[in-house]
Specification:
174 residues; single chain; mainly alpha
């Protein structure tokens, strides 16, 4: 039950911190130090950071309280860090393809749903039987890879639709 409580707390943390990260780049005076962690424009890609980084920030706190009660912590957290952005992408493009445009309220609901699904995937892995050290190392590498991609693509985004600012049509930091 304690593991579930921490995963539910993680949902709230990720939603609130992720929501703040939506605005923090502008509030920071467009700081280059803030850019890798916050949305720098209105592209779908930049919004993926709003779920990823809060999950990264929450994981060490959660680990302090759950390290003796769970298995597969690194795998579980990495799973959530991939499921959240994947959920956002899939749900966003599904509904915008059907409607032909995006709706702000639906975007927020999708963010919340993706966070819930990600944290429940994490819970499932945390409460499953122990996996090998090899899988933990692979998960850590996958998590670091995603963090590096978010950092690099903040400053050097490919000119692909997912990176395009939905309001200005531009790419990267305005």
């Amino acid at each position: 039950m304690r593991v579930l409580k921490w995963e539910l707390l993680g949902i709230l943390f990720i939603i609130f911190v992720g929501s703040a990260l939506h605005f923090i780049f502008e509030l920071s005076g467009y700081s280059a130090w803030v850019a890798p962690f916050a949305a720098v424009n209105e592209s779908v890609w930049e919004h993926l950071k709003l779920g990823f980084w809060p999950a990264v920030f929450f994981a060490p706190c959660e680990y302090l309280f759950l390290k003796k009660r769970t298995c597969n912590f690194v795998i579980a957290k990495t799973a959530a860090m991939y499921v959240i952005p994947l959920g956002i992408v899939l749900l966003f493009y599904l509904y915008t393809t059907l409607l032909g445009h995006n709706v702000f309220a639906i975007d927020i609901i999708i963010f919340i749903i993706a966070v819930i699904i990600g944290q429940m995937a994490s819970y499932r892995v945390l409460t499953s039987s122990e996996l090998s050290n090899r899988e933990n190392v692979a998960a850590l590498a996958a998590g670091v890879f995603l963090a590096v991609i978010f950092l690099v693509f903040t400053f050097y985004p490919p000119h692909v639709f997912i990176f395009q600012d939905l309001l200005t049509g531009g790419y990267g930091i305005p």
